[in-house]
Amino acid sequence: MTDVSMHSGDGPGAPPPKKSSLFLVLFLIAIVLVVVGAFLMFQRRAEYKALAENTEALAVPTVAVFHPEAQTSDESLVLPGTLMAYIESPIYARTNGYLKKWYRDIGSRVSKGELLAEIDTPEVDQQLSQARADLGTAQANVHLSEITAVRYSELLKTDGVSKQEVDNANGDLAAKRAIVQSAEANVRRLEELKSFQRIDAPFSGVITRRNTDIGMLINAGNGGSSQQLFFLAQTDPMRVYVNVPEADASSIRPGIGAFLELTQFPGQRFEGKVERTAEAIDLSTRTLLTEVDVPNKSAQLLPGGYAQVHLLVKVKAQRLQVPVNALLFRSEGLRAVVIDANHHARLQSLTIGRDYGTSLEVLNGLKPDDWIVLNPPDSLEDGQEVHVKEVNNPLVPAPTAAPSTQPAPAKPPASSSSPEKKP
Q1: Which domain holds residue 139?
Q2: How far is it, in rounded angstroms, from Cα 205 to Cα 238?
Q3: Angle at 404 between CA 399 and CA 405, to 5 degrees
Q4: pLDDT tens for each residue of 274-288
Q5: Tens digit of each residue's pLDDT (9 = 90 or more) over 26-45
Q6: 213-229 burial, b for 16+ CB within 10 Å, e for fewer?
Q7: For residue 395, what are the CA distances in angstroms to 379, 402, 413?
Q8: If you average pLDDT over every residue of the chain, what do you get?
Q9: 423 preceded by cis ω (within 30°)?
Q10: How many CB atoms lie within 10 A of CB 80?
């Protein structure tokens, strides 16, 4: 009976064991697919999030930053200057004619009153001859009028002539004397004009230009550069004009020592002193025009040259130096881009001192510990977020391979929101 029951359990009504195994396999496969799909979905979402963060990070520009270089606080004031002759004057003709001969050329050193050139003046000579003849005629008429007046005065005593005739004779004598004086003045004028045929040096100096030659037509007066015969300059001493910034104007006064340095004379100093100042600030440049006089007995200094003028005053204010490629030239003025602690760019206005060509002196607007941007893009706006990367100051020589005991400079300000924690 038991065997029959056991065999009856395997009868046609029982579920087949193969279908249960297949259902289990399909269920497991479904679970695996759900897990794999969920993993892929989370992975895709993480990739999208990473891509968005990367895109947002790339949208924030990366700028190179450095510290401005601090200058020595007690250095002398050094400014560019222009060498000029102490006295310089163009020499023009004061009479008409043709250049007869010139005696001094460029580079000639002449003394005061020395003959430089002669002008042939045929028209003036004829006018002078005519004026002298007119003077002789006037003098003869005066002599005749004097004789007539004396005779009429004698005849008046005997009632030979009337009082009216005597008065007429005396009046005619006075008129003839006035004509003589006019003729004499005309002769003197022409004699003075003829004396201008000699071109003499008005002061001692050197001829720097000669703009005339033999046979050239000469017109009297300043008729332009073509009528300038010579250009004379006194080069000992030399004047040097410098423009002192307004911030240093109060320390400049006559008598302060100064010296010049020229590139063509390395290591040589030309001593001088401040002779005078304009005593007023130029509105266009905000500088004080200052004159420095320097002896030039050796004639090494040439007018029109360039020199570095060292004014022997101590500069006490803190000064910084930045390269020109760290500045933005905006319509509102010169600006530097300063990075704050939150990695935001700030456009800082500056007060500029000396111009060194590749760099500028900053009098106000920056601090030594400020991080400023090198080669800032024109599109950079005030308050814009940036990433920072520290670079060496272009004005500071690159450090050597030898170990240094100096402490490392402070790092640029880091922000937790920035991908780059430090440059």
Answers
A1: 122-195
A2: 12
A3: 145
A4: 998 888 988 888 888
A5: 778 888 888 888 888 888 88
A6: eeeeebebeeeeeebbb
A7: 25, 20, 22
A8: 79
A9: no
A10: 14
**Whether residue 423 sits in one domain with residue 341:** yes
Which range, 60-74, 225-239, 306-320, 353-367, is most confident?
Answer: 225-239
The predicted model gives 125-139 an average pLDDT of 89
Gap between the Cα atoms of 168 and 161, Å rounded: 11
Domain assignment of residue 16, yes or no:
no
Identify whether 421 is part of a domain.
yes
% of the chain residues with pLDDT over 90: 7
User: Contact 169/152 with Cβ under 8 angstroms?
Assistant: yes
* In-domain check, residue 10: no
Assigned domain for 177 exists: yes
Per DSSP bridges, beta strands 287-294 and 345-349 are unpaired
CATH number at residue 249: 2.40.30.170
Strands 306-314, 287-294: pairing is unpaired
Q: Are 183 and 262 members of one domain?
A: no
- Name the domain count of the chain: 3
- Could you tell me if 75 and 163 are in contact, meaning their C-beta atoms sit under 8 angstroms apart? no
Query: How many Cα atoms sit within 13 Å of 272 on the Cβ side?
Result: 29
Structural domain ending residue among the three candidates 293, 314, 335:
314
Residue with tokens 């695996």: 32
Section 379-392 average pLDDT: 80
415 and 356 in a single domain? The answer is yes
